[in-house]
Design a protein that fits this description.
Oligomer: single chain
CATH class: Alpha Beta
Number of strands: 8
Strand order of the largest sheet: 1-8-7-6-5-4-3-2
Strand content: 5-15%
């Protein structure tokens, strides 16, 4: 599927759970269709999917369900990063066997890893699994532009990078300037700097999956030269949600699942423990925002 250069809007799916914290596959399939109907260019399963809370069996089931429902309409990117090289290779092979089109791999973060160790980690994955690899640059284990370029030059399948370590806009600019000849650059961090990133050479974003039509509209407007219209969509639909989730690191999954419940896409807003619950004031603020955006 991913034979052409990937670009555009690649939302990261949440994992819907039922009241017993079991994967709700029916809601997941509705969520996929909700995003595809909005015109997204790809879909991902990653940290925003609570993938780190899934069992190995659930990881496989999740990938198979997404690949099956997508049915080849867009590329599917699966996060397979781990704190051990052998484990990351294992997850990557499992993703390939279950039909993934590409991998997203964050560097080990539990113990600090130097450039040589990081290079060996990506080389092992690239040698084992012939699928395009997104380097995931995150605050816990940031990747410099120089190291990113080296990884692309040394590892055949390292072809993309998702930049989301801060300052993300400056990091995108540096990555494009230094490694843009070797890597295709995407933005991340929830899509909060999508327009600024595109100005600096990013060709896509991997945002949250609750407002895909807004992200697609922004993408289409920027491609058509209507940046003013893109900003109007951003401030009207995306900025209020981003401000709400930024109030606490643990609010992200809960808020976005509440939005999807409100929009009739998934059945419950269950987030796997440990996870904070919304306090009464924040819940009222969210409810008021949803009534305004999606009455």
């Amino acid at each position: 599927m991913a034979t052409e250069v990937m670009q555009g809007v690649y939302p990261i799916l949440v994992t819907p759970f039922d009241e017993e914290s079991r994967v709700d596959e029916e809601s997941l399939r509705r969520l996929i269709e909700f995003n595809l109907e909005a015109g997204v260019h790809g879909l991902g399963v990653a940290l925003g999917s609570e993938v780190y809370k899934l069992t190995e069996a659930e990881r496989g089931r999740m990938t198979r369900a997404v690949v099956d429902q997508v049915g080849g309409r867009v590329p599917v990117v699966i996060n397979t990063g781990a704190n051990g090289t052998d484990l990351a290779v294992h997850y990557s092979k499992m993703a390939q066997e279950n039909g993934a089109d590409a991998l997203m791999v964050l560097p080990p973060s539990f113990f600090p890893a130097g450039a040589e160790e990081v290079a060996g980690y990506y080389r092992a994955i690239s040698d084992a699994v012939p699928l395009p690899i997104f380097i995931q640059d995150v605050a816990a284990s940031p990747i410099s532009a120089g190291l990113a370029k080296r990884l692309a030059e040394e590892c055949e399948w390292v072809q993309y990078i998702k930049v989301e370590s801060f300052p993300v806009v400056a990091k995108v600019a540096a990555m494009v300037a230094e490694a843009g000849d070797a890597l295709t650059v995407f933005g991340g961090a929830g899509g909060g700097y999508f327009i600024e990133e595109m100005r600096r050479g990013s060709v896509g974003t991997m945002p949250f999956c609750t407002q895909p039509e807004a992200f697609v509209d922004i993408w289409n407007r920027v491609q058509a030269g209507d940046e003013a219209g893109a900003w109007e969509t951003f401030y009207r639909h995306l900025a209020p949600v981003a401000r709400l989730t930024a109030q606490g690191a643990g609010l992200f999954h809960g808020v976005h699942k509440e939005i999807l419940v409100h929009r009739g896409v998934i059945r419950t807003a269950v987030v796997r423990a440990p996870a904070p619950s919304l306090d009464a004031v924040t819940r009222r603020e969210l409810e008021a925002l949803l009534e305004e955006l999606y009455p």
